[in-house]
Design a protein that fits this description.
By secondary structure, the chain is α/β, with parallel strands linked by helices. The protein is built from 14 helices and ten strands. Helix content is about 50%, strand content about 15%. Helix 12 packs antiparallel against helix 13.
Length: about 450
């Protein structure tokens, strides 16, 4: 039997047999995993920041409440003190120039941003109304804004949403720097000026529960003015909404305000960079719903947060959230677990598609390898058997057959297979012995025939 015809020698079962099959499959799965990982979205950041406002303002207070809620999910929200909406907008847009200094989120008053600025950012919705409060000395009669030429008017701090909106409304009313004294200062200073009689009117834009506003309302020397032509302002400026303030609602014991008042309000928008992580959008909107969802002086329960009144193009993830609520996984799993599953689903699906056929294929392949270790010898046995039957039976050829069978028997004795296949191995050895017995019989008959001649 030539070396080319001899089955592989020393076919022993070893860990390398399993490595050859299962290890190769594992490498295939690993390669598929690495490929799929290229399409897995990064994990949401654990440390983000929001540009809020002055520490005594509603923006800052609400942002702190968001931070406390997000902390329950392992997200740290750093609240940044700023000058107000315009400052917040500028900081958010400065991300390209100084990304390490720019916040990830901001609360921005509706109407502040230009169309170009709006296009560069994404809105997550409106969070609450920001009424325009007009405060003046108790003895002063209410006047429409277009009758304030020559008046001393506090319009709020520089770079604040209050100043932006006050200047816009006054400009629509024909009141400007050249025909009135428009004073820009921080709200605490403006409040002191109002109490001292140095201002005829003070604009204050903010939520009804603001500490500064509450203090001004409680002052017996001041009064809240209504806004004549409120509907006209809201119709001209679509970022404004008309609101009604019932008499006595601010302080029923003192009857503040004295009569029903019409007001206008902007809405506070939660705004983010376009690359905001989708999982954070859901988490932020859930936090906003917890803070603002119960309603307030001007909004019924469930009014906010809302996609309505949004001054910025809404994020696709925010649209989905408002339509369907939080993702299924986030409703029942911790945030980290839900986001991990959501991120890796792009990898899990193709891996399952690969693993299922592998699990079905590997056992038959292993069985085939073990059986081949035994059955490959039958090729040599069958050839010897056929030649013994049909070929010449001279002593030299029969001796060569005997040598081949001895070599085969020696090689087969070194074959190792699992116990479940031992019966097939021993059947092979019996067949070798049967062929050796037949060869011996043929050799004896050939020798006897030769002696008779």
């Amino acid at each position: 039997m030539s070396p080319e015809e001899t089955p592989n020698k020393r076919r022993k079962t070893s860990p390398w047999d399993l490595w050859g099959i299962y290890g190769g499959s594992a490498l295939l799965v690993l390669a598929a995993t690495l490929l799929a990982l290229q399409f897995v979205q990064p994990a949401p950041p654990r440390d983000i920041s929001i540009a809020a406002g002055a520490q005594d303002g509603a923006y800052y207070r609400y942002a702190q409440q968001y931070a406390a809620i997000l902390a329950r999910s392992g997200i740290k929200l750093t609240v940044l003190e700023t000058k107000g909406s315009e400052d917040n907008l500028n900081r958010l847009l400065a991300a390209e120039d100084a990304p390490e200094l720019a916040p990830d989120l901001a609360l921005i008053q509706g109407g502040v941003a230009t169309d170009e600025q709006k296009a560069a950012l994404l809105g997550l919705g409106s969070m609450f109304y920001e009424p325009v409060w007009l405060l003046g000395p108790l003895g002063e009669p209410s006047r429409a804004l277009n009758q304030l030429q020559g008046a001393r008017i506090g319009v709020g701090p520089p770079e604040s949403g209050t100043r932006f909106l006050a200047m816009r409304m006054l400009a629509l009313s024909g009141v400007q720097d050249d025909n009135a004294d428009l004073v820009s200062s921080d709200m605490k200073s403006a409040a002191e000026q109002l109490r001292a009689g140095d201002l005829d009117l003070l604009f204050l834009v903010g939520a009804a529960d603001g500490l500064l506003l509450r203090g001004l309302i409680a002052d017996d020397q001041l009064r809240v003015h209504g806004l004549p032509h409120a509907a006209a302002y809201a119709r001209i400026d679509r970022s404004l909404t008309t609101l009604a303030l019932p008499a006595g609602v601010l302080d029923l014991a003192r009857g503040v305000p004295r009569e029903d008042l019409l007001m206008v309000a902007a809405t506070a928008n939660l705004v983010a960079h376009p690359e905001v992580h989708p999982a954070l959008v859901d988490l932020l909107l859930e936090a906003a719903a917890e803070v603002h969802g119960s309603g307030g002086l001007f909004a019924d329960a469930g009014t906010f947060p809302t996609p309505l009144h949004s001054d910025f193009p809404l994020s696709d993830d925010a649209v989905r959230h408002y339509k369907n609520g939080p993702p299924f996984l986030q409703r029942y799993l911790p945030f980290w677990a839900a986001t991990w599953i959501d991120r890796t689903k792009v990898m899990i699906v193709p891996l399952l598609a690969l693993l299922l056929p592998l699990f079905k294929l590997l056992p038959p392949v292993y069985v085939w390898r073990i059986r081949r270790r035994i059955t490959c010898w039958y090729v040599a046995l069958r050839r010897i058997d056929l030649e013994l039957e049909t070929g010449p039976r001279d002593q030299g050829r029969l001796a060569d057959f005997a040598k081949q069978l001895e070599e085969i028997e020696r090689e087969v004795a070194q074959v190792d297979v699992p116990l479940s296949y031992a019966d097939q191995l021993y059947n092979l050895r019996l067949h070798i012995q049967a062929l050796q017995h037949r060869l011996a019989t043929v050799a004896g008959e050939t020798a006897e025939a030769k002696e008779q001649r």
